Amino acid sequence: MTRNLTKLGLITAATVLCLAPMSGTSAADVNTLLATCANCHGKDGASTDPNDPVIGGMSATYLAAQMSAYKKKERPCPATEVKAGDKKGTKTDMCEVVKDLGDGDIKAVADYLAKQKFVRASQAADAALAAKGQQLHQQNCEKCHSNNGSVPDDDAGILAGQWTAYVKEQLAAFKSDARKGDPKMKPAIDRLDAASIDALVNFYASLK
Known about the structure:
With 208 residues, the protein is mostly helical. It folds into two domains: 27-114, Cytochrome Bc1 Complex, Chain D, domain 2 (Orthogonal Bundle), CATH 1.10.760; 127-206, Cytochrome c-like domain (Cytochrome Bc1 Complex, Chain D, domain 2, Orthogonal Bundle), CATH 1.10.760.10. It has nine helices and two strands; from the N terminus they run H-H-E-E-H-H-H-H-H-H-H. The protein has helices at residues 27-41, 60-71, 94-98, 103-114, 127-140, 146-149, 164-175, 185-190, 194-206; strands spanning 80-81, 91-92. The chain has a two-stranded antiparallel ribbon with strand order 1-2. Helix 7 packs antiparallel against helix 9. The two termini are 24 Å apart. Mean pLDDT is 88; it is low at 1-24.
């Protein structure tokens, strides 16, 4: 069930667009776009790089909103290294990647990735910190990121098993207002100090 189409928690405050029909987006076009995604996010969005989030298995609504936000530069666009393909080793960023995508392109990519499995990252977690992080999640995050942040239909991104480096980067962006989230999320983010953030990310990392 789609809980709230404007709630884009971990992560974003971009407005969900009414996407146009996919007329004009061919299967070949979609495959080309997905290959570009895979060069950083891995096949079917199952990223193996700590700096590039796992995106396969997130909701189509969430994924489309994030691409639209990048296109309008409503999310920070840090540079990242291309991991595969003919541009391997070069630098790019998400605003550059999506700048020429039409609504049909965005919808096609989001729909495909939403049908894939969310492959949780294989990473270490401190058990004691994870236990503290679980309490913090229940107190501050569970209402919007339900079942420990694992439900795609929350349309808030998936936290359970997401790469720690990416989650920390996004929490910092929300805390500094570089990235806008649901207004109800801001007070919860502001309550988190460095120790709390470490505990939270260890909790999400512990969910294999």
